């Protein structure tokens, strides 16, 4: 079992990832896809006059500020467009893909954050109208039911709160939770860079092997969104996933390439 997270940033080649998955499925591999959609959400927000606002926590993690209006835009772009088009693409290639998000059947239950802290101009700000959450549980029985019935789950990063509210959740960490719940052998985080670099954006400084014991130091060195990938990798390994690979999603055969160990292999 391999969980593949398809990055939502520009440049990640969904078509190449899907085509590669089709060939590997023929060889008996099993996949669950978890996708992002930040580029689509940003574009739709701009078009609707609600441009994205990113916030940075005191510990240096960047996330999307998600008030109710932003949440609805995120649902339209990511759960609506990206999930549907990705599912359509797989269906056209002969894969019986099943698009869903964490709201469906309480697939991913999360705790809504009562408040989030943001650092703005050196000052700490408390935000209380944020619809984001941290995933607590994944309904692995639902996923296994779909997989055993011959479907391939394609999951959008939306969770459900205890009150039934839709919550924006980080796609890398969602993929880590799904991989842990399924006890997956591999978690692939496919993005628009070759992997984790010592000196971003110098691709010649790619870190090819990263022991679990060095993840804390790697998180310190990671820039921007890569911090969440390192955190997701750590959570997946603690959850029983055998290995995590941060790899290039812009190339041909990106899944095969990652499974061959090309990228940053974390064990």
Count the beta strands. Answer: 16
Query: How many angstroms does the end-to-end distance come to?
Result: 16 Å
Rg (C-alpha, Å): 17 Å
- Shape descriptor: globular
Strand line-up of the largest beta sheet: 5-10-2-1-13-15-16-14
Reported CATH architecture: 3-Layer(aba) Sandwich
Protein model, in words:
- Helix content is 35%, strand content 26%.
- It has 267 residues and is of the alpha/beta class.
- The protein has one domain (2-266): 3-Layer(aba) Sandwich (Carbamate kinase), CATH 3.40.1160.
- Strands 5-10-2-1-13-15-16-14 form an eight-stranded mixed β-sheet, with helices on both faces.
Topology:
Blueprint: E1 2-6, H1 14-26, E2 31-35, H2 38-47, E3 54-56, E4 62-64, H3 68-92, E5 97-101, E6 108-112, E7 116-120, E8 123-127, E9 133-138, H4 140-148, E10 152-156, E11 158-160, E12 166-168, H5 171-181, E13 186-191, E14 209-210, H6 215-221, H7 226-238, E15 243-248, H8 254-259, E16 264-266
Parallel strand pairs: 1-2, 1-13, 2-10, 5-10, 13-15, 14-16
Antiparallel strand pairs: 3-4, 6-9, 7-8, 11-12, 15-16
